[in-house]
Amino acid sequence: MRRLGAACALALAAAAPVWGDADSADLQACAASLKRSLEVMEAAPLLKEEVATGLMWLRLDAETALEAGDAPGCLERARTVESILGLAPAKG
After folding, report:
1. What's the distance, CA 14 to chain centroid?
2. pTM of the entire predicted model
3. What is the mean pLDDT of each run of 10 residues along the chain (92 residues)?
4. Contact status, residue 8 vs residue 54, Cβ threshold 8 Å
5. Cβ atoms of residues 74 and 27 within 8 Å
6. Which of 9, 13, 19, 91 has its CA 20 to 30 A from that of 61?
């Protein structure tokens, strides 16, 4: 999972130049949410494989939306991951 985390961080860094001014704050909030959810998933006791797989797919969908500059799509998926993990939405 650490390798996946590094790949996610690279994807987020690569997406930064695509962000438009209007949605920049939402996209940054989504990127922070994705980072935080991965940290929680890596630190948590093992999740059931099906749940962990579903969460990773949701995160990947959110990252795809982030890379495309789709702030609402990214935030929707990131907030769903946070909800399943029992996290309050990140401020920002």
Report:
1. 14
2. 0.59
3. 44 43 80 90 78 91 95 93 84 60
4. no
5. yes
6. 91
List C-alpha distances in Å: 19 to 12, 15, 31, 70: 11, 7, 11, 9
For the record, the structure tokens of 11 come out as 């994807």
Query: What's the CA gap between 44 and 28, in Å, rounded?
Result: 24
**Helices H / strands E in the chain, number of each:** 4, 0
Q: 43 is written with which tokens? A: 């630190």
- Residues with Cβ within 8 Å of residue 48, at least 6 apart in sequence: none
> Which residue is it, tokens 């994705």?
34
Question: 37, 81 in Cβ contact below 8 A?
Answer: yes
For residue 56, give Cα distances in angstroms to 4, 46, 82, 92: 10, 14, 12, 23
